[in-house]
């Protein structure tokens, strides 16, 4: 994908180094520097085709990330005013709530979490598939793990309540926004917002469930984005075109259903783990809101699936498909069998 850009691998290396620097640092200035290095490496990859839509998305992304970085710097300065140290791992008191809140807001802006989620669909709608994949997976790692680190530093009721409201709002906005979308990239952006809400809620209760959810989400996203890239090479702008894409369209729809969390697909396992880890906690109502947001997404995906499958049942002849489509079928079978296998192992271990 980046073969036309000779220095694309250098930008990918810079982007990876920035993320690793942010995740491995305990100093707020080095965390901020790592996020900026990651931004410098990712921006040239957004505009490698030099189209108008990519340029607009790159400008929007740059402005939003700069705003998030400014919130991080302001929050770290407020923390420094209270503790006189730039180190991250210090104890937080009641007087540090304002700085802590500003830090969380900066990370939410960078992630695209509620109520700062409006930029993500607009940015992702103008990008090619590989850039969308990087934006939905790798670019979420550093801010998400920083949120997890901040949760280890403060167990204030107000902070936990704020993160619960952010996670439930993200899940609901992801479901409501996806109901009115016909553009595939924007639909996947709203799906990413919903999944980020689940990850933040999982981080409150269990670090292991959050990391498992993140791994499964990245695995399904890679399969889905690569399948979409292979199927249309950028020509499939509207999601209704999946109906005319044969068996490959059915495979992509199964991956979308897995991303929405339909059992027994692989995406259901991650949501099930989060529910099990948090059902004994005091935030049962938040679980209901998360499930409600997922049901909205699942309703839209299922309605699209039935309209496509029942309207084009005669077109799904395996003999007419090429070898590449069979590869996507294997990816789909892997998602189904993987979800069933993990569910069986989890049930056996819980007995």
TrEMBL record:
One GO biological process term: mitochondrial electron transport, NADH to ubiquinone
Annotated keywords: Electron transport, Membrane, Mitochondrion, Mitochondrion inner membrane, NAD, Respiratory chain, Translocase, Transmembrane, Transmembrane helix, Transport, Ubiquinone
Location of the NADH:quinone oxidoreductase/Mrp antiporter transmembrane domain: 26-296
InterPro entries: Complex_I_Subunit_2, NADH_UbQ_OxRdtase_chain2, ND/Mrp_TM
Transmembrane region(s): 29-49, 61-85, 97-120, 127-151, 157-175, 187-206, 212-231, 252-277, 283-306, 327-348
UniProt family annotation: Belongs to the complex I subunit 2 family.
Protein name per Swiss-Prot or TrEMBL: NADH-ubiquinone oxidoreductase chain 2
Organism: Nassarius jacksonianus
């Amino acid at each position: 994908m980046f073969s036309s850009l000779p220095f694309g691998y250098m930008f990918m290396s810079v982007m990876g180094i920035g993320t690793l620097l942010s995740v491995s640092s305990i100093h707020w200035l080095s965390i901020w520097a790592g996020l900026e290095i990651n931004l410098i490496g990712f921006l040239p990859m957004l505009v490698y085709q030099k189209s108008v839509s990519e340029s607009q998305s790159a400008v929007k992304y740059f402005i939003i990330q700069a705003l998030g970085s400014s919130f991080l710097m302001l929050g770290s300065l407020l923390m420094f005013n209270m503790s006189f140290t730039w180190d991250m791992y210090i104890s937080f008191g009641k007087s540090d709530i304002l700085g802590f809140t500003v830090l969380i807001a900066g990370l939410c802006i960078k992630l695209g979490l509620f109520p700062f989620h409006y930029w993500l669909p607009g940015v992702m709608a103008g990008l090619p598939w590989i850039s969308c994949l990087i934006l939905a997976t790798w670019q979420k790692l550093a801010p998400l793990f920083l949120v997890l680190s901040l949760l280890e530093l403060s167990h204030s009721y107000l902070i936990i309540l704020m993160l619960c409201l952010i996670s439930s709002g993200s899940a609901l906005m992801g479901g409501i926004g996806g109901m009115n979308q016909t553009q595939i990239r924007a639909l996947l952006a709203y799906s990413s917002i919903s999944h980020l809400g689940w990850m933040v809620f999982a981080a409150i209760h269990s670090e292991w469930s959050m990391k498992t959810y993140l791994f499964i989400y990245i695995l399904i996203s890679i399969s889905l984005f690569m399948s979409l890239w292979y199927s249309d090479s950028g020509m499939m702008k509207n999601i209704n075109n999946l109906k005319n894409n044969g068996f490959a369209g059915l495979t992509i729809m199964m991956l979308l259903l897995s991303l929405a969390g339909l059992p027994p697909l692989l995406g259901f396992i991650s949501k099930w783990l989060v529910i099990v880890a948090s059902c004994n906690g005091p935030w049962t109502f938040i679980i209901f809101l998360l499930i409600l947001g997922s049901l909205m997404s699942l309703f839209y995906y299922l309605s699209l699936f039935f309209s496509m499958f029942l309207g084009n049942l005669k077109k799904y002849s395996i003999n007419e498909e090429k070898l590449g489509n069979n590869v996507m079928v294997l990816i789909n079978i892997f998602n189904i069998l993987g979800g069933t296998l993990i569910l069986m192992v989890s049930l056996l271990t819980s007995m």
